[in-house]
Specification:
The chain has helices at 3-22, 26-42, 44-56, 61-71, 77-90, 94-103, 106-128. The protein is an all-alpha fold and 129 residues long.
Length: 129
């Protein structure tokens, strides 16, 4: 298998993982949203740590590649990475992670955003070295 085929296979594997999360029974998705809300509110440093694991490849090559695409994008990197890690770590579909985010207080949103940005910067500087 060549590198291009490997990358395609890993992207397909990630897509299947995300589809599995999105198509889970409603009760499972709601439970995952509650767990994600709790994690974002009570332990933003854990969510941020998982984002760094995502970037460094701990969730697989496809997820790492997706994270790096997000990092090179112009959008809200923190939000996109939290939504991706919500799906992979907590089994929470991206839309449900966004809904949980909207339930956070302004202080909790700021704490999570700062923790994730710090991990992004730390991981990016480690990659650059």
């Amino acid at each position: 298998m060549n590198d291009q085929q490997y990358e395609i296979n890993e992207a397909r594997l990630l897509a299947k993982q995300l589809d599995y999360v999105r198509l889970a029974p409603l009760s499972d998705r709601k439970e995952a949203r509650a767990e994600m809300l709790e994690a974002m509110r009570d332990t933003p440093e854990t969510v941020a740590e998982r984002v760094s694991w995502l970037i460094n490849g701990s969730y697989g090559y496809g997820a790492c590649r997706k994270a790096k695409i997000i990092l090179n994008s112009r959008g809200n990197k923190s939000a996109a990475l939290v939504q991706l890690i919500g799906a992979l770590e907590w089994g929470c579909p991206e839309r449900y992670t966004a809904e949980a985010w909207n339930q956070l207080s302004d202080a909790a949103k700021a704490a999570l955003n700062q923790a994730v940005i710090a991990q992004i910067e730390s991981t990016e500087s480690a990659i650059a070295d």
